[in-house]
Structures are given as C-alpha cells and as structure tokens.
Amino acid sequence: PGRHVVQRLALRAPAPLEPLGAWGLTELDGGAVVGDGALRGKVWLASFVPATCDAECAASLARFAGAARHLDDLRDKVVLVTVARPDAAAQLRAVPAVEGARWLRLTGEP
Asked: For residue 107, which phi and psi values (nearest 5 degrees)?
C-alpha cells in the first residue's frame, strides 16, 4: 500500500494539449449545469459514452466507476468526468453512481 501513496505524490498532470474553451453540460444526477469553470485547476479524467453502448462499453463504464472508489484521498484534486449524449444517457444511468466520489456524469450536446 505505501508504494501507491508514493506514486500518487509523484504524479504530475501534463499541460493540456489545447484549451477547450467555454462549455457547459448537465449533470445526469440532479440536473445542475457544470461548466469549464468548475474543473479549472483540477486534474480530470474523461470518458465518453458512444451512442450505442454494448456490453464491452458497459463493462468499461463499470471499471471507470471503480476507479472513483480509489480516489477518495484525492477528491479535491482529481475529478472523473463521463459524458454521454442525450441518446446514450440511459446507458450511463445504468451504472450506479459512486457514493461520495468526485465522478461527474454529464449529458448534453457537444
């Protein structure tokens, strides 16, 4: 266990490839709009749900949710973000949210 703590302390996020610009998407749970300002200064890992989410896609979403359980101690620094178009939001809803985790499940048009 100690090795993983040291690895986390040594992690440094690379600079963004290019700025995304202003954006806003709706939280799947609650309906609040989350925009680029909410994530400014944080490291965030993003995943995207395709329009057709097969069994492999659903398993990938479940693994991503599992990652949220391992980031409790980094809650203020690392945010997981999953984006689904409105026509794929049902697949994202099928994966239970992780209690207390910083996992934003967002939907909206690109």
From this structure: -140, 155
